[in-house]
Amino acid sequence: MEKIIKSLLLKIGENPNRDGLKETPDRVSRMYEEFFYGYNKSKKPKITVFDNEQLSNDQIIIDKGYFYSFCEHHMMPFFGEYYFAYIPDKKIIGLSKISRVVDYYASKLQVQERLTMEILNELENKLKPKGLAIIMSARHLCKEMRGVKKNKVEMTTHDFRGVFANNSKKKKELLDLITLTRK
User: Fold this and answer.
1) Is the CB of residue 121 less than 8 Å from the CB of residue 52?
2) Topology of 43-182 in CATH?
3) Which of 14, 74, 158, 173 is catalytic?
4) 112 labelled catalytic
5) N or C end of the chain: smaller count of CB under 10 Å?
6) Are 162 and 132 within 8 A, CB to CB?
7) Is-catalytic flag, 54?
């Protein structure tokens, strides 16, 4: 990878041997290993679930967080926030595991639509809840820095399953709760 980075520096007209760039190929190589750990199956987070003995059947649990990923079309970053919600059935999840799952799937070249689906598929498979949902809103630097060059625009994707997909009252309740947390 270091040879590729050195070639890239030459291609854009830089001198990879000048003082400020001598260590850049190594730094960039290590950075890419960190950014793209989602290709390493051994780094996939272990998802801890617990028996649901006390929560009511109607309780909506919401986790909000931030994510960073890379567009597979231009290899440029896209980043933003997510809201994950579920209504438990027989299992609940350790809350830190949600953000770990988001980060793992975001640590690959992605499109936001697939990222949204992969996260929900993984969590639905482990939790088997009555309903779950994810809403992801992100800025895409491939749209802001090149091409149309529109600043601070966001793309939002979502997926609603179970009662959030089939019960408009529950979906509205979820969306109202998310609106409250955004203020």
Assistant:
1) no
2) GTP Cyclohydrolase I, domain 2 (3.30.1130)
3) 74
4) yes
5) C
6) yes
7) no
| Candidates 14, 34, 110, 112; catalytic one | 112
Q: Which member of 33, 59, 72, 113 is catalytic?
A: 72
Residue 158 annotated as catalytic: no
DSSP per position, 23-54: THHHHHHHHHHHHTGGG-GGGSPPPPEEE-SS
| Residue 55 binned pLDDT confidence (cut-offs 50, 70, 90) | low
User: Residue 53 — very low, low, confident or very high, per pLDDT cuts 50/70/90?
Assistant: confident
Q: Considering 33, 59, 73, 154, which one is annotated as catalytic?
A: 73
Residue 58 pLDDT: 80
Q: Provide mean pLDDT across the span 155-163.
A: 97
- Indicate the domain borders of the chain: 2-35, 43-182
Please write the tens of the pLDDT for every residue from 104-142.
999 999 999 999 999 999 999 999 999 999 999 999 999
Which listed residue (142, 144, 158, 173) is catalytic? 142
DSSP state of 144: H
Q: Is 124 a catalytic residue?
A: no
Query: Per the residue annotation, which of 110, 118, 122, 140 is the catalytic one?
Result: 140
The pLDDT value given to residue 182: 77
Q: Which two tokens stand for residue 182?
A: 């955004």
Nearest to 159 by CA among 113, 107, 125: 113
pTM, full prediction: 0.93
